[in-house]
Amino acid sequence: QVQLVESGGGVVQPGRSLRLSCAASGFTFSSYAMHWVRQAPGKGLEWVAVISHDGRNKYYTYSVEGRFTISRDSSKNTLYLQMNSLRAEDTAMYYCARDPEPDQLLYCFDYWGQGTLVTVSS
Amino acid sequence: NFMLTQPHSVSESPGKTVTISCTGSSGSIASNYVQWYQQRPGSAPTTVIYEDIQRPSGVPDRFSGSIDRSSNSASLTISGLKTEDEADYYCQFYDGSNVVFGGGTKLTVL
């Protein structure tokens, strides 16, 4: 079955960097676009970034553009989110999620990971 | 900016049917797919409906999605309510530029 397992979260000071990982299994990873979605404590869901199935196309929400980089390594079935110049407002649970249809980008999600918590605080 | 509006909360009794609405602020909600996500307290979201009406494997057919063009809204209907259905439910839509989530609806089953 489809499994997505995030890791790499933690407590980090403002201005510092962190890299999140999402290990995928149970499906052909290289065929699906992948997303990062976050949720600040007590708040709703916010889409962060997407990478196409072949890694050629990457899109970001405005507030992280230029600071975050999404990437993937299909040889390792792993999705990444490199987060630089972190701010207090980036504090959130970060989820990776799969786009539903192979070789397409629909900007929706059918499977989610359990999340990894990022806390930005001095 | 396109927005999705959901009721803040709904409640219903076990065994009954409840419908949660999700109304688009402009344009046509039928122009792209609507998704519904369930989030139980302390847990990650899971998808109950994607591409308007599709259910991921393992989601019971008590969950169904629909679109109403006349009101520019989508609905999630849960029949035969169980206490385990108590959760927050979020609708989601892509308007061609932005991924938009509704604010969430807290479903209480009592």
What does this structure look like?
The complex is a heterodimer of chains A (122) and B (110). Chain A has 122 residues and is mainly β. Chain A has strands spanning 3-7, 10-12, 18-25, 34-39, 45-51, 58-60, 68-73, 78-83, 92-98, 111-112, 116-120. In chain A, the strands form two sheets. In chain A, strands 2, 4, 5, 6, 9, 10 and 11 form a seven-stranded mixed beta sheet that branches. Chain A has a four-stranded antiparallel beta sheet with strand order 1-3-8-7, with no helix packed on it. Chain A starts with a strand and ends with a strand. The relative contact order of chain A is 0.32. The model of chain A has no long low-confidence stretch (mean pLDDT 97). By secondary structure, chain B is mainly β.
Order of helices and strands of chain B: EEEEEEEEEE
Low-confidence stretches of chain A: none
Which class do the helix and strand fractions of chain B yield? mainly beta
What percent strand of chain A?
over 45%
Note the beta-strand portion of chain B: over 45%
**Helical residue percent of chain A?**
under 10%
Q: Helix- and strand-based class of chain A?
A: mainly beta
Helix content of chain B: under 10%
Briefly say what this structure is.
The complex is a heterodimer of chains A (122) and B (110). Chain A is mainly beta.
Write the layout of secondary structure elements.
The complex is a heterodimer of chains A (122) and B (110).
Chain A: E1 3-7, E2 10-12, E3 18-25, E4 34-39, E5 45-51, E6 58-60, E7 68-73, E8 78-83, E9 92-98, E10 111-112, E11 116-120
Parallel strand pairs in A: 2-11
Antiparallel strand pairs in A: 1-3, 3-8, 4-5, 4-9, 5-6, 7-8, 9-10, 9-11
Chain B: E1 4-5, E2 9-12, E3 18-24, E4 34-39, E5 46-49, E6 63-68, E7 73-78, E8 87-94, E9 99-101, E10 105-109
Parallel strand pairs in B: 2-10
Antiparallel strand pairs in B: 1-3, 3-7, 4-5, 4-8, 6-7, 8-9, 8-10
